[in-house]
Amino acid sequence: MYITESTPAAPGKMEFLSFQLGGLDYGVEFRKVKELRTLKSLERFASDGAIISGVAVSHGVIMPIVDMRVAFNAGAVSTGPLTDVIILQLADCVVGMVVDGVTDVVGMYADQITPIPGADGEGECDYLLGLGECGGRRLILVDIDKLMSIKRESSGSRQRVA
Prior knowledge:
- By secondary structure, the protein is mainly beta.
- The chain has a single domain, classed as CATH 2.40.50.180.
- Helices cover 6% and strands 50% of the residues.
- The strands form three sheets. A six-stranded mixed β-sheet has the order 9-1-2-12-11-10. A six-stranded mixed β-sheet has the order 3-7-8-6-5-4.
- A hairpin with a 5-residue loop joins strand 13 and strand 14 (158-160).
């Protein structure tokens, strides 16, 4: 499903696409979302490792597919009928992100988002925007550009790719 322009959010209100990974709710900025697809509907023509689960084509665009279920969980994951791929337009590329399932679009104001300790740009969690609370739900809000720019080294340390 292609994402079309949505109704403009109220001034100061941010929109996040919410999704599930390992039983937790996460959110990414809705403006980064280009398309939603089921995993089975993607034309995959290469398969690589655990986290980078291959390369796919969607509407003529070749993109890596990152399996966030593997990245965020240590155990094995299985693909089911609700497994979704969020196709994102990042700052410098298009990437597909495999998640357990997409739930909805959530609007939040800045006062509904609590900063996460250690996510101040210098810690291990600098890719987290904060913890959002809306309608009794809690979302872990992710800066997807920062998260996708992390390169894991074999020694366990992290470095930025670019």
